[in-house]
Amino acid sequence: MGSDQVVSSHPQPVSSSVPLTAETEARLQSVNEAEILVGIPSYNNVDTIGHVVRAVSAGLAKYFPGHRAVLVNSDGGSTDGTAEAVSQVVVDYGALLISDQQNPLQKIITPYQGIPGKGSAFRTIFEIARRVNAKACAVVDSDLRSITPEWIELLLRPILEEGYDYVAPYYLRHKYDGTITNSVVYPLTRALYGQRIRQPVGGDFGFSGRLTEHYLDQHVWGSDVAQFGVDIWMTTEAVASGARVCQSFLGAKIHNPKDPSSDLSAMLMQVLGAVFTLMESHYGVWSNVQGSSAVKLYGFQYEVGVEPINVNVERMIALFRQGLIDLEPIWEQALGRDIVSQLNSLRSVSASDFRITDDLWVRVVYEAALAYHDRRIPREHLIKSLTPLYLGRTATFVLETQGLTTMEAEERVEQLCRVFELNKSYLIERWKPERQ
User: Fold this and answer.
1) Is 209 exposed, middle or buried (0-12, 13-18, 19+ CB in 10 A)?
2) I need a labelling partner for 295 at 20 to 30 A (CA). Which of 93, 245, 362, 410 fits?
3) β pairing state of 205-208 and 136-139
4) Per DSSP, what are the bridge partners of residue 205?
5) Helix 358-374 crosses helix 406-422 at what angle (to 10 degrees)?
6) Smallest Cα–Cα separation from 150: which of 58, 38, 72?
């Protein structure tokens, strides 16, 4: 679908705008308009944000010297000097062999208002983008250690020159990094919406001014999206609204990875809750999609070293089995006795033989989505109860891929995606649209 199908980009009345501080309003008056905006949400990131700001500044000067640009730091009340670090960054463009910086980079450093969280920070960035009439925007995480100036080109140029509305990141990651994406979010969103966006929860995105208008017009800012569900929400809204979507290869994303067996239940709750809620909003879109298609990938692909991640398979299996003991009645109500019976067969197998198969896992996820939609049990209880199941599936993936390279392990993810697609009819046949 073409970008002209995105929700109208007519300016919204000021009455519907996001509240900004008086100081930010004054800065907007001096900035007036900008073609490009790069937003950096932050909260106590003084150790890393200086590097991110330097990379953004150098990228804008090197690749977009003739464009008026503004950098927006949307901060959640940092107490460690994050805002001061942003204001004090000085880039030596001469050392970078950049001599044609025609327009100095404007900076707006502002607190955001609303529910504490990344989504509220993004909402302020979106509002400032609308106010300066930005044509192309990007957001990047404030704790990145691997960002380079080239990221800015790769996130913005497809929008400025190729007519895309949304640029998703494509990273090379360790095979055990991003396990929520690998086991649930990528396969499920690919099967639902038919586009192979590998990192739908990536954190670093490019988007058009048109899409910014669409985001601001959605009534989600008092929900979990305002906290930490915003990444998957942005990707899904882009696809479902008919925006032209592509990906850009950014190399490695180096951050502070976590052992998948550590406490990821909060993240799983936020992301899956957003995915399931969006399924209700966009049933008319995904119920008519069959199969999936590749999404254009920009950038030169190269091999990069990725940081190793140590995983504790025995702990993940133990937590799964504890879930069988503690949560069996909840799982029976939410997922059905047949699925729970198959899960119970894993109570006593040896760790080396432990497997939640692709077919069983896909049924677990689809039944969980149906249980959420049908409100079989309180939604918060449902999502919380999925953590041991997710850990059991992650243990399966680790056991199956221990001897494989990251690229070889990627084929296992692709196999899982195909099973999600082949079994999508299971979901559609059981979904009750009249409950919307």
Assistant:
1) buried
2) 362
3) antiparallel
4) 139
5) 50
6) 58
Task: Report the percent of the chain where pLDDT is more than 90.
Answer: 73
Give burial (CB, 10 Å; 0-12/13-18/19+) of 159. Answer: buried
Tens-digit pLDDT profile for residues 208-243:
999 999 999 998 888 877 777 899 999 999 999 999
Cα–Cα distance measured from residue 34 to residue 134, given in angstroms and rounded to the nearest whole number: 5
pLDDT at position 102: 56
What the block records as the tokens of 264 is: 């990821």
Q: Which CATH code is given to the segment(s) 3-14+22-298?
A: 3.90.550.10
CA distances from 147 to 22, 108, 169, 247, 296 (A): 32, 21, 12, 16, 22
Domain ranges of the chain: 3-14+22-298, 313-428
Nearest Cα residue to 47 out of 82, 87, 72, 92: 82
Of 329, 349, 327, 334, nearest in space to 395 by CA: 349
Q: Pick the closest to residue 430 from 359, 365, 357 (CA basis).
A: 365
Query: For residue 155, which amino acid is it?
Result: L
Higher pLDDT, 288 or 310: 288
| CA pair distance 58, 149, nearest whole angstrom | 6
Q: Is the dihedral of CA 350, 355, 360, 364 positive or negative?
A: positive
Helices (H), 136-224: 149-162, 179-180, 186-193, 209-217
